């Protein structure tokens, strides 16, 4: 085995804290997963202050990303090179299509969505890192964003007690927060849609054969115009914690319902 082969097969050290960033070689590239938000922007600032000369921020477009110009502005301001990588077709073919056939629904509440994306996002980041000869792939995802803040506030103000608890089943979401499922169809309007399924895979809409990515985009607009495909429920986190999450998936709602109807 050559030295290069040994280096490629040797287990890498995990960077579990900002303190371990000090072990990074400032002359070798680093790849970071980047959403444009505060939690993924802060590491770019830290890496720049540490003097790393080549930082690559990677953002993977799986079909919902329209914030490319903003992300580029933030990344470049923090001294990183942004890679906007379109993986929509691969995501649809490798992950979405099997999920439709599997009727992948989380605890009977909502279609599995973000969970499907994580393997492809990680795989894409690793591909980029290998092509660049990067020494590390960094991300800022964690098990819970709430626990540290709650613990610190409780320690600082031990006398604070709440008398009423919010009912997680009763909540309102401002209509402007939705992108696809704002009702725009005329009241009482009826629209007939025909979805063709072959071997468990949607292949055509109203007789027109389309790539799965385009079919989903069309369904999100047409089905969403009737306010369909909205989901709200409690997401289960580690240590018994739960968080209320709101989703809109008009295309997923229709495709899963269609497939279930065929099965019956």
UniProtKB/TrEMBL annotation:
Nucleotide-binding keyword on record: yes
Listed A to Z, the keywords are: Amino-acid biosynthesis, Arginine biosynthesis, ATP-binding, Ligase, Nucleotide-binding
Pathway assignment reads: Amino-acid biosynthesis; L-arginine biosynthesis; L-arginine from L-ornithine and carbamoyl phosphate: step 2/3
Class of enzymatic activity (EC top level) = ligase
Q: Name one Pfam family in it.
A: Arginosuc_synth
Give residue ranges for domain Arginosuccinate synthase C-terminal: 162-263
Q: Where is this region: Disordered?
A: 140-166
Q: Which InterPro entries match?
A: Arginosuc_syn_C, Arginosuc_syn_N, Arginosuc_synth, AS_cat/multimer_dom_body, Rossmann-like_a/b/a_fold
Superkingdom assignment: Bacteria
Under Gene3D superfamilies, the record lists:
Argininosuccinate synthetase, chain A, domain 2 (3.90.1260.10), HUPs (3.40.50.620)
Arginosuccinate synthase-like N-terminal domain location: 30-142
Coiled-coil stretches noted in the UniProt entry, renumbered to this chain: none
- Keyword Protease set for record: no
Name-wise, this protein is argininosuccinate synthase
Species for this entry: Streptomyces eurythermus
């Amino acid at each position: 085995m050559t030295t290069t082969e040994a280096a490629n097969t040797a287990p890498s050290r995990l960077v579990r804290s900002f303190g371990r960033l000090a072990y990074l070689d400032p002359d070798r590239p680093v790849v970071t997963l980047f959403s444009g938000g505060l939690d993924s922007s802060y590491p770019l600032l830290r890496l720049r202050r540490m003097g790393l000369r080549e930082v690559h921020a990677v953002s993977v477009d799986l079909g919902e990303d329209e914030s490319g110009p903003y992300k580029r502005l933030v990344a470049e301001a923090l001294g990183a090179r942004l890679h906007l990588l379109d993986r929509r077709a691969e995501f649809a073919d490798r992950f979405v299509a099997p999920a439709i056939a599997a009727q992948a629904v989380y605890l009977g509440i909502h279609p599995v969505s973000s969970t499907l994306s994580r393997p492809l996002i990680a795989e894409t980041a690793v591909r980029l890192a290998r092509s660049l000869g990067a020494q590390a792939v960094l991300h800022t995802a964690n098990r819970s964003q709430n626990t540290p803040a709650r613990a610190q506030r409780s320690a600082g103000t031990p006398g604070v007690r709440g008398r009423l608890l919010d009912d997680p089943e009763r909540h309102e979401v401002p209509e402007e927060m939705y992108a696809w499922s704002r009702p725009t169809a005329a009241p009482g309007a009826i629209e007939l849609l025909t979805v063709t399924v072959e071997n468990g895979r949607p292949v055509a809409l109203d007789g027109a054969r389309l790539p799965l990515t385009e079919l989903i985009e069309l369904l999100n607009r047409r089905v969403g115009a009737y306010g369909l495909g909205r989901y709200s429920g409690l997401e289960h986190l580690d240590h018994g914690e739960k968080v209320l999450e709101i989703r809109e998936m008009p295309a997923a709602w229709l495709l899963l319902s269609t497939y279930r109807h065929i099965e019956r």
